[in-house]
Amino acid sequence: MLKAKSIFQKEISNKPYLFVNLVFAFFPFSFIFGTLIVNLNFLLFCCLGIFYLKSKILRTKYNFAIKIIFLFFLIVFLSSTLNAIKSQYFDGYDSDLNLLRFTKSILFFRFFLFLIITYLLNKYDILDFKYFFLTAAFASILVSLDIIYQYIFGSNIIGLKNPAPAYVDTLAAFNIRNSGFFGDEYVAGAYIQRFAFFAIFSTILLFKNNNYTKFISTVCVICILGAGILLAGNRMPLVLFIFGLFLIFLFNLKIKKILFISLVILLILLKFIISSNENYKHAYHLLFYNTKSMMYLPTIKIWSQFTKVDEESPKIKNFFYKDRIVRFEPFHERIFFTAIDTWKFNKVLGNGIKSFREVCHKLREMPDINLEERVFDAEGLLEGTAALAPEEVTYFNKKNRLCSNHPHNYYLEILTETGVVGLIIVSIIALLFISFLFKNNKFIKQIRVENFILLAAIISLIIETIPLRSSGSLFTTNNATYLILIGSIILSYKTILKIKIE
């Protein structure tokens, strides 16, 4: 015990900033433990960062990208404040709700502080992302193995079982979800997808001097991660994970052969699992038809396609209405249209932070709109799935809209809550990111630990912010923390790649 203590004290003396690095590296685990631990981890890291940086936070000259990001936070505050004043003094709405939104818009600045602290700690050689790189890799593999274990044995490695669903949602009806360490939250697939590429690149680096071992271990890790996402029951993260593997090819790395073979083996494995399990087969058939219907959005009225889709897919129809009596309808299209309708109430600055649920109720006053209220996540409906045939719930003479807690798309949420101004600012940030990729491609594609840290963050950010995907709310603690965390790594690219800072 005394020897171990002595070794730890020696490590601290050699690396005086080890503790703040470990706190930052703990974030992948804090997401597993839940929002409370994320907030505590967040608070501790910010306090340590302020302690080490002190006046450097105010004296540093920030680049254009950081200034634009700050402008977005300012627009969130301005939009929320103006809408709170309007709601309080002109519309006569609940004062407590207005105060809550105003408070949330101020507290949202904490994520910008987190961004600045992370960026400056790395700039002044206090924060080393290598620790985070390793913990993100380890955590994603651990969660994947735990999900696979739970699928085989019925409970995860610490004895947790899947909770009985309190509602009949689309995926609960299929019985394909496994929650693992997350208990009653079915988010394991999304978690694995977010940190999977740190695991892939760390495996390649770990065995870079042994080609045979590198090949076998990389194939195994990619298959474990992909199988974990599939068995977690989260379909969109699986699609994004596969898309992320394709993105790696664009960076022209000298690992294309390994990735290609890994991808082929992964697709064969996923095909085998899906084909051997009727529930998974039905779930992914539904994903296919929902995706197909979304592609028809520009030219075809979604609601007129119900009968046609059912006739083309009798197995899905029988499964829904005979076995489980779960209604098949494209929920996300309805809520996306609802977001557009709510944005029209305030096109320039939007309706303020976390306003979607309340503002969408104004649509009830529209005579040409049929409005329902449901609660569902990025994967499907969570509450209120009715045992009704389509002809009993479809209204061809009205616009069908859904109220929910948020629009389930980052960009539509930005549009409806910060207006055109907020969306323009985000578009500028996106253009800066694209410009960064083109300018630094020659640095990124080198096989070094620093480059792979940056590349894992880049791919993770791309697949997290694809415009057409369904998503959680941008303004929740976990999502905002993850986006800022990954974004701060990318903003620190000059220090990571050892590029001379002008």
Distance between the termini: 48 Å
Query: Helix fraction?
Result: 55-70%
Low-pLDDT runs: 295-328, 381-397
How many helices? The count is 25
Strand fraction? under 5%
What is the subunit organization of this protein?
Answer: single chain
The structure class reads mainly alpha
**Biggest sheet descriptor:** 2 strands, parallel
Describe the overall structure.
By secondary structure, the chain is mostly helical. The strands form two sheets. The chain has a two-stranded parallel ribbon. It has a two-stranded antiparallel ribbon with strand order 2-3. Strand 2 and strand 3 form a beta hairpin. Helix 9 crosses helix 12. The longest helix has 30 residues. The termini are far apart. The relative contact order is 0.11. About 10% of the residues have low confidence.
Task: Briefly characterize the structure.
It contains 25 helices and 4 strands.
Which descriptors would you attach to this protein?
502 residues, mainly alpha, two-stranded parallel sheet, 25 helices, globular
